[in-house]
UniProtKB/TrEMBL annotation:
<dbReference type="GO" id="GO:0006508">
    <property type="term" value="P:proteolysis"/>
</dbReference>
<dbReference type="GO" id="GO:0005524">
    <property type="term" value="F:ATP binding"/>
</dbReference>
<feature type="transmembrane region" description="Helical">
    <location>
        <begin position="174"/>
        <end position="191"/>
    </location>
</feature>
<feature type="domain" description="Peptidase C39">
    <location>
        <begin position="36"/>
        <end position="165"/>
    </location>
</feature>
<dbReference type="GO" id="GO:0008233">
    <property type="term" value="F:peptidase activity"/>
</dbReference>
<protein>
    <recommendedName>
        <fullName>Peptidase C39 domain-containing protein</fullName>
    </recommendedName>
</protein>
<dbReference type="Pfam" id="PF03412">
    <property type="entry name" value="Peptidase_C39"/>
</dbReference>
<dbReference type="GO" id="GO:0016020">
    <property type="term" value="C:membrane"/>
</dbReference>
<dbReference type="InterPro" id="IPR005074">
    <property type="entry name" value="Peptidase_C39"/>
</dbReference>
<keyword id="KW-0812">Transmembrane</keyword>
<keyword id="KW-1133">Transmembrane helix</keyword>
<keyword id="KW-0472">Membrane</keyword>
Length: 204
């Protein structure tokens, strides 16, 4: 019976694991880069955006340190991959995504890649207000603007490529239900095993 209980535990654990899904958007594609340097002490817009994003996550990141860690760009500015690798090395797990306006409202800040003419440019956006349709666009070192998400997505500069914090894995409602049922069934099986063992001991 003990073996049966163990098998039940393994079986329901596997089922619950399949029902636990990461709440992560689809990965962004394309070699998004920044091809401009902002006037903030000569730092690239990628370094300024990444430093600001880190501060919004509660990290005291200095643009000069971020720029130093990014190192020289590998072409027309720093790439999204470089920003993600640098953030990961500095202790913040990020990933590239393709922002879908239909999936809004946003749950947190993002580094957004814009296309300004032939040059790429990184800015930071974060949700504001209670409607779920407004974002604050932060373009270090000075520009700040609040606008509607739909307006931003209709902009000719919009690419949809962005960088966000990698979310923790969260359980779906079905995953929680199956996990709960597994614990109940295993508990019942264990009680029955204990009762049968006790009866065998009384008759021996």
């Amino acid at each position: 019976m003990t073996t049966r209980v163990a098998r039940l535990l393994v079986l329901f654990g596997l089922i619950a694991g399949l029902c636990v899904t990461p709440r992560e958007p689809a990965s962004a594609t394309g070699p998004a880069r920044d091809a401009s340097a902002e006037p903030g002490a000569g730092h690239s817009c990628g370094a300024l955006a990444l430093a600001l994003f880190g501060r919004l996550q509660g990290l005291a990141w200095d643009p000069a340190e971020v720029d130093r860690r990014l190192g020289p760009d590998s072409g027309p500015g720093h790439s999204m991959a470089q920003l993600i690798r640098t953030a990961n090395a500095m202790g913040l797990s990020l990933r590239g995504v393709r922002l879908d306006p239909a999936a809004w409202p946003m749950s947190g800040p993002a580094i957004l890649h814009l296309q300004r003419g032939r040059a790429g440019h990184f800015v930071v956006i974060r949700p504001v207000g209670q409607s779920g349709r407004l974002v604050q666009l932060l373009d270090p070192p000075s520009t700040s603007e609040v606008l509607e998400l739909d307006r931003l997505a209709r902009s000719p500069e919009w690419t949809g490529a962005a960088i966000v914090a990698r979310p923790a894995f969260g359980a779906s409602p079905w995953g929680l239900l199956v996990a709960g049922a597994a614990f109940v069934l295993v508990g019942i099986a264990a009680m029955r095993t204990r009762d049968r063992s006790r009866r065998v001991g009384e008759h021996s």
